TrEMBL record:
Full protein name: High affinity nicotinic acid plasma membrane permease
Pfam families referenced in this protein's UniProt entry, alphabetically: MFS_1
Membrane topology of this protein: Multi-pass membrane protein
Keyword terms of this UniProt record: Membrane, Transmembrane, Transmembrane helix, Transport
Biological processes annotated in GO: biotin import across plasma membrane
Gene, per the UniProt record: TNA1
Organism: Scheffersomyces stipitis (strain ATCC 58785 / CBS 6054 / NBRC 10063 / NRRL Y-11545)
Domain of life of the organism encoding this protein: Eukaryota
Classification lineage: Eukaryota, Fungi, Dikarya, Ascomycota, Saccharomycotina
């Protein structure tokens, strides 16, 4: 098969699919970063989220943790549904409901309401990350997937950076029409997210190879008539694309036994531990990065803290763009590349913790951000590579959801047990919380080595 022709086809798909997934992930990620920033917005005048709702440290850590509990509980069932329905409609549904829930944040009046909203936010957003990984596996072979995952994963970093910049602007609106700055930010963000979610119904293409539907149900007929976007490829390109992905489109029908087989495959657990450490660190810095900056340098204003938060995620973006292409090119070295990235994060956390001077500590956060970039894309593409060939459609969907869902226990640990959940650690400039993240990253490195050793020794392809 002509490699140049295939490259042209995948570039054509990139122009249609990657921008849509990028916008999807940008908006669904923005809420997490915004939540962390609202804890410090307009704090000088007593108008931060915590001050406005009279939150205790336990309230903040509980609300943060329950967000990830929603993901953990619902990631697998949400992704299983996606294997049975139109994937672009399901991803659109996720974005619309995330927008609806975040729009409601601007009317919060109590800690109980915040805790409930955080859990619901996690529930409606469940399946986002594994769903996008599953969607990419429908359109791209594994040797092309890590880079694509990295492309749209940059949206999380850009959204975190933009959240820092945008929050600085919204703090200038504090008091307009009786709303605080963070209330304005949630309201505007929610409305934009709903609008983009609706547009995804026509923006994202459906499955690449879909059998025609002759259902007598008029609602289904209307759905396919108005909500099935045109295929991005012409007939010749579709045939070449089909031949390149023939190995992917096997075992499309599944039973609950197949789901249990994936769950009991030993190889899933090292991947979960890998994800546990890097996502725990990533979300710990995403939610409490601004808190760490403010604690290390108490002389900064809340607007300055928001502006300093943004570059962490620009360094993360640089890590993705520089390193993920090597993970695709050298697939056999994924464990090594992942481990080296984790060591960079650990180096950054040591600098943040033990360097002298607030600006040196801030430099450590930038180093950690760079290392974080490629770790999650490597986890997800490696998961699809291991589980797709043997288990087919259900293997790709369930393994991605398990790695994302159970791996988010790392996020719960970082947001509930550490930082705000450990008030005494603030006096130590979060030294112990930072070091616990280093321990989690060490576990991720060990897990990547175990995964490398097990990947061809357990339950080989049927």
């Amino acid at each position: 098969m002509n490699v140049k022709e295939l490259d042209k086809i995948y570039r054509k798909l990139d122009f249609r699919i990657i921008p849509a997934l990028w916008c999807l992930y940008f908006l669904t990620s923005f809420g997490s970063s915004a939540y962390g920033l609202t804890l410090t917005m307009n704090s000088e005048v007593g108008h931060s989220l915590g001050q406005h709702l009279h939150l205790t440290p336990k309230n903040i850590s509980t609300a943060s943790a329950l967000y990830y509990v929603g993901y953990i509980i619902f990631d697998v069932p949400m992704n299983l549904i996606m294997t049975k329905v139109s994937p672009q409609s399901w991803l659109s549904r996720i974005v619309i409901t995330v927008g609806l829930v975040y729009t409601c944040y601007h009317v919060l009046q109590s800690s109980g309401a915040l805790i409930a909203c955080r859990f619901i936010s996690g529930m409606v957003g469940a399946g986002t990350w594994p769903g996008m990984s599953y969607y990419i596996s429908l359109w791209y072979p594994n040797e092309r997937s890590t880079r694509r995952i990295g492309y749209y994963f940059t949206a999380a970093q850009i959204s975190a950076a933009v959240a820092g910049l945008v929050s600085a602007g919204f703090q200038k609106m504090d008091g307009v029409r009786g709303y605080t700055g963070w209330q304005w930010m949630y309201l505007v963000y929610g409305v934009i997210t709903i609008a983009v979610g609706i547009s995804l119904l026509w923006w994202l293409p459906d499955r690449p190879f879909k059998e025609p539907t002759d259902s007598p149900n008029k609602l289904i007929q209307l759905y396919h008539k108005f909500l099935t976007p045109p295929h991005p490829l012409n007939d010749k390109e579709k045939e070449l694309h089909r031949k390149d992905l023939e190995h992917r489109y096997k075992l499309l029908k599944w039973t609950w036994k197949d789901v249990i087989d994936v769950i009991t495959d030993l190889r899933i657990w090292p991947l979960i531990i890998m994800y546990f450490g890097v996502v725990g660190t990533g979300f710990g810095l995403a939610v409490f990065g601004s808190t760490i900056i403010a604690t290390n340098n108490p002389n900064l204003t809340s607007i300055q803290v928001s502006l300093l938060y943004a570059p962490i995620w620009l360094f993360d973006l640089a890590g993705i763009l520089i390193i993920t292409p090597f993970a695709d090119k050298f697939k056999r070295l994924r464990a090594l590349i992942f481990s080296l990235a984790c060591l960079v994060i650990m180096c950054g956390m040591f600098v943040t913790t033990f360097a002298r001077g607030s600006w040196n500590k801030y430099g450590g956060l930038l180093i950690a951000g760079f290392g974080l970039g490629p770790t999650v894309p490597i986890c997800m593409s490696w998961t699809a590579e291991i589980f797709g060939p043997r288990y087919g459609d259900v293997g790709t969907a369930v393994s991605a959801a398990l790695v994302s869902g159970l791996g988010n226990l790392g996020s719960v640990t970082a947001t509930y047990a550490l930082y705000s959940g450990w008030p005494a650690d603030k006096k130590r400039l979060f030294r112990n919380s930072n070091m616990m993240l280093v321990v989690m990253l060490g576990a991720s490195i060990i897990a990547s080595v175990v995964c490398h050793l097990l990947r061809n020794r357990v339950r080989q392809q049927k």
